[in-house]
Amino acid sequence: MTAFTGTRLTLAFAALLGTTALCSAQDLAAIEKAAKAEGMLSTIALPHDWCGYGEVIAGFKKKYPDIKVNELNPDAGSADELEAIRANKDNKGPQAPDVIDVGFAFGPQAKTEKLTQPYKVSTWDSIPSNVKDAEGHWYGDYYGVLSFAVNKDIVKTMPQDWPDLLKPEFANAVALAGDPRASNQAILGVQAAGISAGGKDGASAGEAGLKFFADLNKKGNFVPTIGKSGTLAQGATPIVIWWDYNALSGRDALKGNPPIEVVVPKTGVVAGVYVQAISAYAPHPNAAKLWMEYLYSDEGQLAWLKGYCHPIRFNDLVAKGKVPKELLDKLPPAASYEKAVFPTLEEQAAAKAVITSKWDSVVGANVK
């Protein structure tokens, strides 16, 4: 059912209709009351050191002290989260998750399997349409973009875009943060380079990305080593193509020894997004809705940003002046993220097929 505008539905009537109308202030008050009566929220796969989730959970507890947060298996993966819903369909106990936070591909899968229920948060309109289910079954929560983590002790002139990496001064300098035949992060790095080079869809971006890395390898600029904090600091891989949140966290961990600069390229700004959803079998559905409202409020979004994961409402928050200057100062310029593109699942799959099957024959660099 499409969202109603200017019409308030009672919670009971909304539930009866299965509507996904935007939550109004009066509805939210009723949800909060019902959530407090439930007294618990069961989350899953939320390690405290990932995207600032420790602060996110603490903030929710502080705001709603009557609701206990029951944290299930913080180290679970997206597939594990869906399995936890399947395994507990008839279980209303604490081992059944109310909410999930999963990779982009798993949102549509969960909906197809009828594992989710629709709910549109009050800030729904500020979530980009290409990263949310039209019916409200799942929606993007935060994302990272592919960036260049650069060791400033070794690299004196910062690369500003993908074509810069082909310059002679970056000989033996550029590495991917994974094997492009197996690592999603590395595959998207190749796809991002292809988009920068003019690739228009998944397959063409994959082909263009392979050509870019073949050129990079022929020029002697590509290092066939999986880049990480250690290789970056030691100088084995002075430039690492990395998710920005990993790069920024790595920068902080090195504490200036050596100094690291994180550069978001001017073109080919590819984002990888995670999505939130409420279990169709949630034992605490109102607590789940209240959790969603908190996550998509300004407060919740900024808590993710403190963990260097860009909240899905980032551009909206910046435009409204809601992001503190001290937080923006720790990040690459906000304008760098305005060009972020979110490849569709189909585009990602098409690019992956091209890149993984042709890397050896086109690029010929055995990354390890």
Automatic annotation (TrEMBL):
- Please give the Pfam families that the UniProt record associates with this protein: SBP_bac_6 (PF13343)
- Looking at the UniProt entry, the stretches that span the membrane are none
Q: Does the keyword Lipid metabolism apply?
A: no
Q: Which domain of life is it from?
A: Bacteria
The answer on whether this UniProt entry bears the keyword Ribonucleoprotein reads no
Database matches in SUPFAM superfamilies: Periplasmic binding protein-like II
User: Quick one: signal sequence residues?
Assistant: 1-29
Q: Which UniProt keywords apply?
A: Signal
Q: Which PANTHER family match?
A: ABC TRANSPORTER SUBSTRATE-BINDING PROTEIN, THIAMINE-BINDING PERIPLASMIC PROTEIN-RELATED
Q: What is this protein called?
A: ABC transporter substrate-binding protein
